[in-house]
Design brief:
The protein is mainly α. Helix 2 packs parallel to helix 4 and helix 10 runs antiparallel to helix 19. The chain is built from 21 helices and 2 strands. A hairpin with a 6-residue loop joins strand 1 and strand 2. The protein has one domain.
Length: about 500
């Protein structure tokens, strides 16, 4: 009884702390700023929060957290905008939105895609906030039960998405994935610190920046195609915008079970320290495809391919706060920056967060809810104007987008060589698209390669080569990976058998 009363007091105190003029002003500024940063390629939530850190000292605790978390949450939908409209991921976590969001834009359904994205992120964010409020005391044994072997299995599960994007030729899909893995290995070995594939070049010691490679593979290559074709993304003489914002909102609500599943997946991945939102987005897309009754629609403009990643990324923030608050272990790069802000505010993550600073925890819960609502309202309001951008003529669109892309590539690390890398990957992306090698598989290989390598090394060093026998959870996860990897092939075989039977009876 006493504990319940204390929880209610903390919830009320967290809400009242956020309802001060300063906190509400900072939340509004953070959301608007985050939307702008999110739309710029190569930046995203980590950069948004890092740039705000110098302005967080000397203000109320709730106001400071509102500024940082509001900006970070707003970048989620900012990433989605460019991914959907131009196939330009604002950062790694926006990649999965390109797969179906961009085809929807080319079909004249940009308003529907943007609205579904904003609504999915809102619902996922609210689920994440509620989960954070309820489950912080319960999550400790779960986190402690997982180790590098389990993370390795999760990364291997991500590789099962390869079959999804290998339409026409599984060999080409696997080739693209292997190329992505090789590119990820450029630089210094994460375990032995040995240079690999650097050819004596000092710049390559730091490896190829993932955001820069994505800018080239998707954004620059798309602009090359548009320049050669000479027509805008949407040619209004051939395609008319026949979708509405309301359709997108209804889509997200109609697929409520997909939203719930994707949100729970985002929470789970967010709880695991160091996994990150980019893996969450790809995993959400994979489970949406694998659980769909019509997986052949994905990659061609299925609205579920937009809803699932955004719901996952919205919930991922609530999950990422859990290890950050309960143990002082950042759930991702952005949470590491939040820990720096905690130091400035005199907040010590750990058991004290659940006792002495419980009101601060609930302030963050309310911030996540309010920020998601604000982003969705703004997003739905500006969607009709944003949806007109893809119909701009190529001679206006190409220089505008390329200039933003190359500025974003330079801004990632402040090195001019990254601009050259973006241009080179633009050519690579154009050739891959021309000869039907999946760019998505290439990126999946890049994302998961380092995670697989690191956790495999640690697992072998800790438990030996037969580590799966010592880690029953990891063994169970491996069985799950095998089953989900075989599922698309089993479905395809069953579909062909049904078609043959139908042809025989006819």
């Amino acid at each position: 009884m006493e504990r319940g009363a204390r929880m209610i007091d903390a919830i009320s105190a967290g809400l009242f702390a956020l309802l001060t003029p300063q906190a509400l002003l900072f939340l509004s500024l953070g959301v608007v700023y985050g939307l702008v940063i999110g739309i710029l390629p190569g930046l995203g939530g980590v950069v948004a929060m890092a740039l705000l850190l110098p302005f967080t000292y000397g203000f109320e605790t709730a106001a400071t957290l509102a500024l940082l978390l509001g900006a970070h949450i707003a970048t989620i939908w900012g990433d989605s905008v460019t991914s959907i409209l131009f196939s330009v991921p604002g950062s790694a976590k926006g990649l999965a939105l390109c797969f179906d969001g961009y085809p929807m834009t080319k079909q004249g359904k940009a308003k529907r895609a943007l609205a579904a994205s904003a609504t999915g992120a809102l619902l996922g964010g609210i689920i994440g906030a509620v989960f954070l409020a309820l489950c912080i005391p319960l999550i400790r044994p779960v986190i402690l039960a997982l180790g590098p072997s389990e993370y390795l299995m999760m990364a291997l599960w991500g590789l099962t998405v390869i079959a999804t994007f290998s339409e026409g030729s599984l060999m080409k899909g696997m080739t693209a994935s292997v190329l992505g893995v090789l590119v990820a290995f450029i630089g210094t070995d994460v375990v032995t610190a040995t240079p690999r594939f650097t050819f004596g070049n000092e710049f390559l010691l730091d490896g190829i920046s993932f955001p820069v490679a994505m800018i080239g593979l998707f954004a620059v290559s798309e602009m090359m195609k548009m320049s050669i074709r000479g027509t805008p993304i949407i040619d209004r003489s051939l395609v008319t915008e026949d979708s509405t914002v309301w359709q997108g909102v209804c889509d997200a609500c109609r697929h409520w079970w997909l939203v719930v599943r994707s949100s729970l997946l985002g929470l789970w991945i967010g709880v695991l320290p160091g996994v990150g939102a980019s893996v969450a987005g790809l995993a959400a897309y994979a489970q949406a495809v694998q659980t769909s009754k019509t997986p052949e629609r994905f990659g061609k403009g299925a609205v579920e391919g937009v809803i699932a990643p955004d719901a996952t990324m919205g919930a991922n923030e609530g999950g990422g706060l859990m290890p950050t608050l309960a143990f002082g272990i950042p759930g991702g790069e952005s949470m590491a920056i939040l820990l720096v802000a905690f130091i400035g505010l005199g907040i010590v993550p750990g058991p004290d967060m659940l006792t002495k600073n419980l009101d601060v925890v609930f302030s963050m819960v309310w911030i996540i809810v309010f920020a998601n609502i604000a982003v969705t309202i703004i997003g739905l309001g500006i969607t009709p104007w944003l949806a007109r951008l893809p119909s701009l003529q190529a001679n206006l669109m190409v220089p505008m987008v390329l200039s933003v892309c190359f500025v974003g590539a330079y801004a990632t690390r402040g090195r001019i060589e990254d601009v050259v890398v973006a241009a080179v990957f633009g050519v690579v992306g154009y050739l891959m698209d021309k000869y039907r090698y999946s760019r998505a598989n290439f990126v999946i290989g890049m994302v998961l390669a380092v995670m697989i390598e690191r956790n495999l090394h640690i697992s072998i060093n800790l438990y030996g080569a037969d580590f799966l026998l010592d880690r029953p959870i990891a063994l169970a996860m491996l069985i799950f990976v095998v089953v989900t990897a075989a599922l698309p092939f089993w479905r395809e075989r069953r579909r062909k058998r049904a078609a043959l039977q139908a042809g025989g009876t006819a």
